[in-house]
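REVIEWER CHECKLIST
Item 1: Sequence provided? yes
Item 2: Single chain? yes
Item 3: Sequence as submitted:
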Amino acid sequence: MWEFETEILDHQNTNLWGGHLVVSDLVANEIKEQKFRRLICTLNGKQSFHCAMLSMGNGLYFINVNKEIQKKLKIGFGAKVQVVLTEDTSKYGMPLPDEMEELLNQDSELNTIFHALSPGKQRSLLYQIGKPKNSDTRVKKAILTARYLILTNGNFDYVELNTYIKEHNNTL
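Item 4: Structure as written out by the authors:
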């Protein structure tokens, strides 16, 4: 576990969204030495989220902090935050929504296709499925995502997937 204080910074002049926090050199080096790929970041002892430590390309490392998290904590760019980082030992690097877990358990073809995807694509899909607060919405999103994955045999792009979900949302 690593603890430090830093501030939320803007990704100025980049194509990255939201904000980020710089990870101190000492902490970044320890995380790299231990080869942790995924982390759980807790800000101000209140909000935890799954993340990765990314390189800025200039020897510095950072963690993205999206607008939703900033809003929940009522913090903006320049705000000081207490950061606690721990290793993420979850299977997917983020929570597996119950709705998707049930579909994976019920459908072996879906399970095979889903687990053939890269870990990053798996995480992206799980994030999108788990994002809605309403369980009915998560169920619909999981079912439509599953149908799309089977239809395309796992060969997809995100724009096409989102279009498929919008076009078929009323069919459930």
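Item 5: Key structural point noted by reviewer: The chain has a mean pLDDT of 90.
Item 6: Recommendation: ____
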